[in-house]
Amino acid sequence: MNDTVDKLVIFLAKRDGIDKLVKTFQYVSKLVHWHIEKTNPAAAARAKNWEVASGLSRKAFRSGRFLTGFNSLRRNPGPTTTFRLLSLLANSGEMVYFFFDHFLWLSRIGVLDAKLAKKMSFMSAFGESVGYVFFIVADMIIIRDGIKEERRIVKTGDGEKDEMERVKRIRGDRVMRLMAVAANLADLVIGLAEIEPNPFCNHAVTLGISGLVSAWAGWYRNWPL
């Protein structure tokens, strides 16, 4: 029990940890609002207020986050030309997302003209979606290469401890990257709902489930071991 509490404290000390918790609030309240909108309008309105407040809070938490992509490119551009290109495109899209998200937040809270919100939301979602596509491609390539390397080790190795440790690391990395792919795919659906509204992506259940998949996959990735 104490170990779980310690891990929760460490998790919530991270900006990403707080973001995943508030994101859970945001999309649970979205689903609650959809579920009780017709049967209990008063409670549904409170759920909607919780959803909106959570969304705005997350934007405040992400202030300055657009610099993260720049720092990633500066510190680890990638081992090959292909990965450097994928990293450039993915992180550039993420930087656009977080940069315009600042203006979206300011327009939603009334600091800037509210009419800017729609345009800022589109530009933010477009950058976000572009970034997610290239993050997914990069992760899938690494997962594929990891599977090939694992098979090679199992086939040619003789079960030595260092080889088994390498296989263990490959499998652990694969789980984390699959979580990242799940989160990015879910967030891509949310981004597409903003870029090109349609009945499927914009349905409350689709958005709610996508938001929770993203939040909980991110929760798993950020939870201290």
| Helix proportion range | over 70%
The helix tally amounts to 8
Beta strand count: 0
| Radius of gyration from the alpha-carbon trace, in angstroms | 20 Å
Number of discrete domains: 1
Unreliable stretches, pLDDT < 50, 5 or more residues? none
CA-CA gap between termini: 15 Å
Structural class: mainly alpha
| Strand content range | under 5%
**Main sheet?**
none
Dominant shape: globular
Oligomeric state: single chain
Q: How much is the average pLDDT?
A: 91
Reading the helices and strands in chain order gives: HHHHHHHH
Transmembrane segments: 82-100, 120-143
Membrane topology: Multi-pass membrane protein
Protein name: Peroxisomal biogenesis protein (Peroxin)
GO molecular function: identical protein binding
Descriptive keywords:
mainly alpha, 225 residues, globular, 8 helices, single chain, 84% helix
Describe the structure.
The protein is mainly alpha-helical. It has one domain. 84% of the residues lie in helices and 0% in strands. The protein contains eight helices and no strands. Helix 2 (15-36) runs antiparallel to helix 8. The chain is globular and about 65 Å long. The two termini are 15 Å apart.
